[in-house]
């Protein structure tokens, strides 16, 4: 099988970010929070500070590495929450129909009508800023696309003979959903999930940029960008490197999502076999 | 214990299934589609009953009711002496008695499950958990439907249409049911494969003591397989009887037209052709449901009520007011011709 370029590049970019995040304590030169030294404030990139230093004299390279942890944690966990909510609601609504379907569809349309970032902002404003609140805010606001996809897939799959056969064979509804419907829609769900992860990374950055995400001084790419606003003309490296990190992560996730779409297509699967 | 072997295995009593269409916005009156409109049916043990009719005549709804997947509006379905319940908790009980073979062998198998998984899950679900017994029954069933034991480890896309239908049959029989509903079991298959599958089904019926309800619009297949035939039109049975009676002396104009439509290489097409489409079941015609398309229709056919089933001797029933007249003119024509 030909390995797709997008899968390869996406995987490579994402692997880089994952390795950077997990190995941050060993790769980083300084502590991302404690090691501020105003004597070295706003140093340009060089041999001592690979990515330069910020206004407080903290090593940007180290902070970008630790920032990967926040971004990946938020991206993966919040998107997992979204996917679970979306799939549960979508599959059950499509399968059972009736008032439950009306309710879920109404809720989904409502969620789609509210810009999810604004909704997340509102949740963050109620909860205290922090990692847990971020996960809740982003995990509860972005499931509508998954839900719609799962519902639509269920509607088209449930008339298939094998779903009918499972009913005739005495499978319970939940078993039909888990063994007959879910495995046959997993491909697109994974693709949407991966692409949504990129969105969650961006949303985390946006919330932290607005000061409602990860509280300074803990390094999040979004809050680092926010801090760098005043120096954007005098010390552009302070904003360039966290921005670049966001770009690489989101690009990697999107390419990976595209690549997964190609190989999870059941048609290409059967051609390979 | 009484001997029940002469009782029919399946009895359908005055079955009516209505579907509501278009919810009135302010609770306005709902309209109903009469998908199945008063059907009485019996299936004897070891018999194959052919159910014939155009699409939209209610065959599939009737089948779903027999399988317990469609709740009847009125009437009941009695399988082996027990009324079929439609509640979810009855699903497992029903599964051991009635099963189904589906029309399309491509969409009827889960593409993500091996054949073993497809056959094993129902067994486990019904309390058979011993590895050796599961393996034994799967191997036995694959052999019965003419597949090699290695087939168990493969995925559906690795099989041809005919082989897939064999897997579908194996799945329907793995729980050792008594009644199997065959929904157009060969119409999606290549003509060259059809005979194989038909013969397999007939053989399994004998060896396993099954009773079949075969839904089909292909009268050639019905003629080959059925002991009795019931012809459906617009949610009702318009004619029923032993297959040779139906094929040699059809009573209802609809049946006659269906039989005339069977292609015969040795004869030029003759007899009545029916034109037009099945009427909208939301507003069925008055009187006899078939009158708008019937070449023999007279004024009497258009006046309500709908005609009743007439017994024409033996087990031959026809739902037509003019059946005797039509048979008579038919006889005259043969005598003159």
Automatic annotation (TrEMBL), chain B:
Function of the molecule: Part of the ABC transporter complex GsiABCD involved in glutathione import. Responsible for energy coupling to the transport system.
Quaternary context: The complex is composed of two ATP-binding proteins (GsiA), two transmembrane proteins (GsiC and GsiD) and a solute-binding protein (GsiB).
UniProt membrane topology term: Peripheral membrane protein
GO molecular function: ATP binding
Family statement drawn from the similarity comment of this UniProt entry: Belongs to the ABC transporter superfamily. Glutathione importer (TC 3.A.1.5.11) family.
Organism: Microvirga arabica
Matches recorded under Pfam families: ABC_tran, oligo_HPY
Subcellular location: Cell inner membrane
NCBIfam families cross-referenced by the UniProt entry: oligo_HPY (TIGR01727)
Entries under InterPro entries matching the protein: AAA+_ATPase, ABC_transp_ATP-bind, ABC_transporter-like_ATP-bd, ABC_transporter-like_CS, Oligopep_ABC_C, P-loop_NTPase
Name of the protein: Glutathione import ATP-binding protein GsiA
Catalysed transformations (reactions): glutathione(out) + ATP + H2O = glutathione(in) + ADP + phosphate + H(+)
SMART domains registered for this protein in UniProt: AAA
Enzyme Commission numbers on file: 7.4.2.10
Keywords attached to this entry: ATP-binding, Cell inner membrane, Cell membrane, Hydrolase, Membrane, Nucleotide-binding, Repeat, Translocase, Transport
Stretches assigned to the ABC transporter domain: 10-259
């Amino acid at each position: 099988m030909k390995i797709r370029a997008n899968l390869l590049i996406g995987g490579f970019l994402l692997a880089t970010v994952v390795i950077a995040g997990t190995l941050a304590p060993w790769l980083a030169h300084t502590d991302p929070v404690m090691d501020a030294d105003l004597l070295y404030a706003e140093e340009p990139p060089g041999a001592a500070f690979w990515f330069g230093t910020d206004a407080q004299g903290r090593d940007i390279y180290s902070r970008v590495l630790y920032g990967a942890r926040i971004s990946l944690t938020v991206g993966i966990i919040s998107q997992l929450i979204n996917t679970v909510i979306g799939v549960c609601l979508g599959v059950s609504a499509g399968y059972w129909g009736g008032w439950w379907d009306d309710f879920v569809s109404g809720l989904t349309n409502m969620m789609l009508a509210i810009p999810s970032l604004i909704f997340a902002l509102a949740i963050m404003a109620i909860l205290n800023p922090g990692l847990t609140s971020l996960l809740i805010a982003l995990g509860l606001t972005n499931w509508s696309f998954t839900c719609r996809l799962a519902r639509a897939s269920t509607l088209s799959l449930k008339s298939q003979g094998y779903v009918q056969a499972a009913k005739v064979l005495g499978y319970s509804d939940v078993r039909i959903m888990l063994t007959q419907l879910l495995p046959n829609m997993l491909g697109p769900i994974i693709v949407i999930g991966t692409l949504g992860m990129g969105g969650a990374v961006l949303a985390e950055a946006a919330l932290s940029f607005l000061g409602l995400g990860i509280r300074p001084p803990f390094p999040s790419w979004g809050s680092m960008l926010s801090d760098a606003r005043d120096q954007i003309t005098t010390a552009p490296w302070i904003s360039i490197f966290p921005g670049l990190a966001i770009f690489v992560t989101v690009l990697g996730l999107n390419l990976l999502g595209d690549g997964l779409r190609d190989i999870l297509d059941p048609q290409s699967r059967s051609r390979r076999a | 214990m009484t001997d029940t072997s002469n009782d029919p295995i399946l009895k359908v009593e005055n079955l009516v299934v209505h579907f509501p269409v278009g919810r009135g916005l302010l609770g306005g009156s709902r309209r109903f589609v009469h998908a199945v409109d008063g059907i009485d049916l019996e299936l004897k043990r070891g018999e194959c009953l052919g159910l014939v009719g155009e699409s939209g005549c209610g065959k599939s709804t009737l089948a779903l009711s027999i399988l317990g997947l469609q709740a009847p509006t009125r009437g009941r379905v009695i399988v082996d002496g027990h009324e079929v319940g439609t509640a979810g908790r009855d699903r497992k009980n029903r599964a051991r008695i009635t099963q189904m073979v589906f029309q399309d062998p491509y969409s009827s198998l889960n593409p993500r499950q091996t054949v073993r998984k497809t056959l094993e899950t129902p067994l486990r679900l019904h309390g058979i958990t011993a590895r050796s017994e599961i393996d034994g029954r799967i191997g036995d069933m694959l052999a019965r439907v003419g597949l090699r034991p290695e087939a168990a480890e493969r995925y559906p896309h690795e099989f041809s249409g005919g082989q897939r239908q064999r897997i579908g049959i194996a799945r329907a029989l793995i729980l050792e049911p008594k009644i199997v509903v065959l929904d157009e079991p060969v119409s999606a298959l290549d003509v060259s494969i059809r005979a194989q599958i038909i013969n397999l089904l007939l053989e399994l019926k004998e060896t396993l003591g099954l009773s079949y309800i075969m839904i089909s619009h292909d009268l050639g297949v019905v003629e080959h397989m059925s002991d009795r035939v019931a012809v459906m039109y617009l949610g009702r049975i318009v004619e029923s009887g032993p297959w040779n009676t139906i094929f040699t002396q059809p009573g209802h104009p609809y049946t006659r037209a269906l039989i005339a439509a069977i292609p015969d290489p040795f004869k030029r097409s003759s007899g009545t052709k029916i034109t037009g489409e099945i009427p909208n079941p939301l507003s069925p015609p008055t009187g006899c449901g078939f009158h708008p398309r019937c070449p023999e229709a007279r004024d009497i056919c258009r006046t309500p009520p709908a005609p009743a089933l007439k017994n024409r001797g033996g087990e031959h029933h026809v739902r037509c007011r003019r059946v005797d007249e039509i048979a008579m003119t038919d006889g005259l024509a043969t005598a003159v011709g």
